[in-house]
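dumping this here before i forget
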Amino acid sequence: MLNLCANISMLFNELPFLQRYQAAADAGFVGVECLFPYDFSIEEVSSAIRLSGMRQVLINTSAGGWHKGDRGMACDASRRSEFERSVRQALQYAAPMGNPLVHVMAGLVPDGVTLEAAEAVYVSNMRWAAGEAKCVGVGLTMEAINPIDMPNYMLSNQAQALRLCKVIGASNVGVQFDFFHCQKFEGNALAQFEQLLPYIFHVQIAGVPERHEPNTGVLDYGPVLDVIDASEYSGYVACEYQPKTTTLEGLDWMTSLPSQTREAR
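structure:
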């Protein structure tokens, strides 16, 4: 029994954002995640959560100027103050939203900076963020994003994510394991999931390589979802994909699954 969560930044985008909470509930999801809720007030988002009965599972910290190419600030020493503001903003939203996980976006490696130096800044910033988040009972995630789709992103593979998670060494920091990103760039996503399992806080899925519905592409999600369901992982499986047509037309893949209404522990 899988806890399926809808990424409402990608799904149900036929509707205004705040209406997507109820649409996800009506479609049978048991939770939602989104990238950036910050275009709406805390009160507006909290009301949509409450009225829909949905659980907010995860939000991202601000990426900075997304349309200018920013993808987070956690590895950029020159943007420490901006990074801290983004974490405080996310934590301010998290409490009334039910304390979802917060994905702290690593960001692009700054020009003229080595990967090793960027990692050191990231570790320092994540340790600070972990302390802030622990005070309000929030967990943080770190996600490896494939460099095919996001070149120069600091965190690009699962071994790196695991290594840095161990170096950060905070009990409230874990890996956000995205099968799409892992399989597209590295392959062997299921084996890597099993290897990282003790450190995984959150799971995301999408078809590979085009990021459409999970029943499209080269990765067979039948065995993947069976392994997740049988594993010790008790969190949510987030559907973070771009529908080929409309969201509802693409949800047929869910009908073959066992009941996904188990409450996450």
